[in-house]
Amino acid sequence: MADPARARRLSKRISEIVATAIEYEIKDPGLAGVTIVDSKMSGDLHDATLYYTVMGSTLDEAPDFEGAAAALERARGVLRSKVGAGTGVRFTPTLTFTRDTVSESVQRMEELLARARAADADVARVREGASPAGDADPYRVGGAEQDDDNTPGDDAGRVAARGRTGQLSTGAPTANGEGAGDDDELED
Q1: Among 3, 6, 79, 156, which lies 20 to 30 A Cα-Cα from 178?
Q2: Is 130 within the bounds of a domain?
Q3: Residue 71: inside a domain
Q4: pLDDT of residue 132
Q5: Block means of pLDDT (10 residues each) for the chain, length 188 residues?
Q6: pLDDT the model gives residue 62
C-alpha cells in the first residue's frame, strides 16, 4: 500500500490533468458541461475514481447525464494516456468516472428542511391561541399539607397492620391456635 499523502497528491494531480484535457484538448460536444469535482485513488495506486457533475447549456435546460457518461467512456483511453504522460508514474491508473450526486442530495435536504420549518411555523401558529385541556399547571405545587403518618418512605402502613406490637393482626390463628378474635373470648 502506498503512502496516503502520495495517493492524495497523485489523485489531485490526476483530477487537474483530466479537467484540463476535458476543457481544452478534447473536442467532444458531449463533454461541454462536464466538470471534474473530486477524485479518489485506491491504496495500490492502480485505480482512480473521478467524480463529475454535468450542467445544462442554459439554466432552464436539464443536463444530459447519459450523453456525458457516454462521452467520458469514449474519451477514457485518451484521458488515461494524458494522465500517464502528465504524472510520470510507473503504472498509469485506470480511470473510472462516477457522477457526483452531492449537489442533488443537498438540494433535496434543503427542500426537506424548508418543509419542516413550514410545519413548525404552522404548529407555533396553532399553539398561540390554545389553552391546556386540564388545569394550567397539572403538577402538585410544593407546600401542600401531608399526614405525618402517611409520608412517603414511612412504614406507617406496616406499623398499623402490626398493631404497634410487632405482631401481625390479620385475624388468622397463630402457631399456638390463638387468633385475633380469640382475645374477646379469653376475657370472660
Answers
A1: 156
A2: no
A3: yes
A4: 72
A5: 86 94 91 91 92 86 89 94 92 93 90 96 87 75 58 53 54 56 50
A6: 84
User: Residue 87 is part of which domain span?
Assistant: 4-100
31 found inside a domain = yes
DSSP three-state, residue 159: helix
33: helix, coil or strand?
coil
Is 35:16 a contact under the CB 8 Å cutoff? no
18 Cβ contact list (under 8 Å, min separation 6): 36, 39, 50, 79, 82, 83, 95
Cell of residue 87, nine digits: 504524472
With a CB cutoff of 8 Å and minimum separation 6, the contacts of 37 are 51, 52, 53, 100
Q: What DSSP letter does each residue of 84-153 carry, written as one string?
A: HHHH--SSPPEEEEEE--HHHHHHHHHHHHHHHHHHHHHHHHHHHT---SS-SS-SPPTT----STT-TT
Residue 173's nearest CA partner among 163, 183, 162 is: 183
**CATH number of domain containing 33:** 3.30.300.20
Residue 179: what pLDDT?
55
In-domain check, residue 131: no
